[in-house]
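Section: Multi-chain targets

For targets with more than one molecule, the full set of components is provided together so that the structure can be written out for the assembly as a whole rather than chain by chain. Components appear in the order listed by the source. The example entry contains two components.
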Amino acid sequence: MNVMFEGIGASVRRKEDLRFISGHGHYVDDMNRPGQLHAIFRRSDRPHARIVSIDTKAAAASPGVVAVYTAADLAKIGGVPCGWQIHSKDGSPMAEPKHPVLAEGKVRHVGDPIAVVIAETREQAKDAAEFLDIVLEDLPSIASVADAVKPGAPLVFDDVPGNQCYDWHIGDRDMVDAAFAKAAKTVTLELTNNRLIPNAMEPRAALGDFDPSTGDYTLYTTSQNPHVIRLLMGAFVLQIPEHKLRVVAPDVGGGFGSKIYHYAEEAMVTWAAGRVKRPVKWTADRTESFMSDAHGRDHVSTAEMALDDEGHFLALRVKTLCNMGAYLSTFAPAVPTYLYATLLAGVYKTPAIYAEVKAVFTNTVPVDAYRGAGRPEATYLLERLVDTICHDTGHDRVEIRRKNFIPVDAFPYQTPVALQYDSGDYFTTLKVAMQAADWDGFEARRSAAKARGKLRGIGMSTYLEACGIAPSKLVGQLGARAGLYEVANVRVHPTGSVSVFTGTHSHGQGHETTFAQLVVDQLGIPFEQIDVVHGDTAKIPFGMGTYGSRSLAVGGSAMVKAMDKIVAKGKKIAAHLMEAAVEDIAFKDGKFSVAGTDKFKTIGEIALTAYVPHNYPIETLEPGLDETAFYDPMNFTFPGGCHICEVEIDPETGTTQVIQFVAVDDIGRVINPMIVEGQVQGGVAQGIGQALLENAAYDAGGQLLSGSFMDYTMPRADNIPNITVGTESTICTHNPLGAKGCGEVGAIGSPPAVVNAVVDALKPYGVRHLDMPASPQKIWSIIHSNRPLMAAE
Amino acid sequence: MPQVTLTVNGKSATAAVEGRTLLVELLREKLGLTGTHVGCDTSQCGACVVHVDGVSVKACTMLAVQADGTSVTTIEGLAAADGTLHPMQEMFREHHALQCGFCTPGMVMSAIDLVNSHPEGLTEEVIRQGLEGNLCRCTGYHNIVKAIAAAWPLMHGKEAKAMAAE
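Its structure, encoded as tokens over all components, is:
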């Protein structure tokens, strides 16, 4: 076996696939523990109500029921904590009302859990939950950010005036005002970033277990970050110290952000297992997922750009209202601030930027990070604004972008909104994408479509994002209540195979393969002899988990650091065995050799010596070949690129078909091109979903209207085209792999490319903007309100 | 409780079920075949697709008692006894047609039925329409479509090639 073939840069087929394609994946709901009970939550069907009374007697007497709990039973446990604190403009901390595990006194959104029934079987628990007699008294309620900020609006929390969580800002307001005062032209755009429901295909599940003989708790949960759950749930909710609480996140069926957060159900089953001294399992049905998984996006913004005569961007002013939902989810406050407003420079050298962000509570499901988290909202705003500027001023869409790009020689580039970009080349990704999409040949395709009675449009977005979150010191200053380093433990076993224990978590990303490729590359150990272990706090020293495209850039860098330690120690052992100076030992392709000689020892021989130290420098060196590293990044990473979308609209039905999608991204060093392509394609599909299909719809009072797959339009195979993916990388300058991250670029870059294409297709109707999703109904209405009504036909 | 007897992956199985027990619950909970997944409660997602008498069926939409006397194949029953994978499984791996793996069992079972029921061949359009009943949130479908197209000649083998040549 040529090990280099499976090293960095090879499209190695995935290690994890065999168990998934043969039905032997190991997801939480596949697990069953001896003596296991089942939990069913009774949830609010009202957006806002006072809990007048709860009578549990009939439910408790129902067959098979072991316990029924309400908030009254949970007096000693804490609320679900929030992991990030934002301060308002005036320096005051954000409003942070308690998020109880079960509703206390009031319910605040449809889906808010009121009680839990624990029974021998799931069916018995379901039956008994129907016997709970709960009297609710409806209260006035609100769902939209616009309604939440109206004077006299109903309050989600009596002690949070104006429903305001925080009123935050960033940038230089005076500088922006001055630039607007002397601008040759200003362009304003009001736009909505539609609320989305993540819908990982695996519904959330949690299985709590308790060992009365040791007092040890175990939680098996669908999580992207088991150590974070252990910390949040153990320290803040249940007061279980880390050494008595194990959290396992086995195979997890997709996350997209929604499985980052600590959820009430996890705490509930863990606590209940301790009470009833039996394992307690809960698995969401899809309806519950819709009304309890954290939603994403939900911004309403006004964006204004000041320009000179030639189309140079002089200043950007942004006002955003964002929805937190009814309670603060784990990362929620950070998303519309430090993951959004700091990205408003995008790929442009706009010298002055000022953004105000007001976050409000509403009677809806909590909103938190969903694939991209803040960065898709920033990208959508900027890229729609750029196209709108062209619409209003007549500038060319490509030329105005080129004119305002940050030049290739300007890196490191300090933006006016805090970030410092390390590397990038937006001109190249633009050029390559335009060639791949045949941008210049488009008008002929538009004419051909017109001859067929179709409206064809093309649109682009040139985007940038920040990921690889993040330097702990920096995020600490910005309000994070945790560090954001990553951890790796590399264990070379006595016979030379390797286990890598990573604090990141793979739920579709293919880490078991990509991370093994790093080991092949750095230690020269065959691919088949490497296992990557993740998702268990009992096995892995520590970790912050997988989100924000951080696993390779941060987690992979921790692995590199740990492997550097392995090699450094191996050199000392090799020097001893070959009676050479440590400085004379070189390591390459799995061999420690003495410089200038043909003497060498393989890493396998060194490992065996390390564990069988008969001939070993035991006075100065510990036995074993097992190293751990914590890696704290020096900066964010900044992937970017150009996405181009071509659509065709049927004016008779208003239906948009995506004909072609090209994504050319700069994601830094690529480890496995096959996996990168898959990540980008999946992200783009979610972006097309947001742009054309998906919408979490609430009525004005907060009743969830899109609460099932029958009502919420998920992208299906015939909604998505083939997606052409290219990479044109510049290397990240501050991590040892040069990697930037690829998990979110697809979802970040694509929505404005799609909407820009739709608006371009609707050019004959004078359309300046339309909000996502660009549904057939919306488009049909535009077309038919703009031309003589042929109702008589 | 009613008793059902059926053949699952070539082996006879008998279980007592409630009238309301779904086929997918029988497979997962009584027979321990957890490869078949449940991704929704409205028969939309297709994670639970199995073959009942050779035809793809959403196992969340069929009562266990309705499966009495049938022959059911699940994802666990696709590979040969010696572990040789079904061509569709092979092509899913080869073309990176799965990421988190949760939709994969249902997707593979639907795809096999799609290929079986189109001996004349499959276009990309037919494949995409044929996947209407299966949701995937990870892949954007691109590689799933490629995998199915690649599995078609492997599954129809020489006969199909001969037909095409005639």
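The radius of gyration of chain A is 28 Å.
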